[in-house]
Write a structure and sequence with these properties.
Elements: H1 2-11, H2 16-23, H3 27-34, H4 42-52, H5 56-60
């Protein structure tokens, strides 16, 4: 999951700090999620998927297609 989480953030041209602000957390916590040090909750992953405009399946690594079919 961590690789796609970071890819999605970069494709959305967002910083770790912007993602942290969206989740009301710290930049360090986002780094932990992106590097697989700590698991992200489903609720937070959903928020970031919407924020990055990608599917939750992409964030979870279930697909390599970042498109969110609900937003197209």
């Amino acid at each position: 999951m961590e690789n796609n989480l970071k890819k999605a953030r970069k494709q959305a041209v967002k910083s770790q700090q912007q993602a942290a602000n969206k989740l009301n957390t710290t930049q360090h916590q986002i780094s932990k999620y992106e590097n697989g040090v700590q698991d992200i909750t489903l609720g937070k992953a959903r928020i970031l998927a919407e924020y990055y405009n990608v599917s939750l399946d992409y964030i979870a690594g279930r697909t390599e297609q970042p498109e969110n079919p609900n937003l197209i």
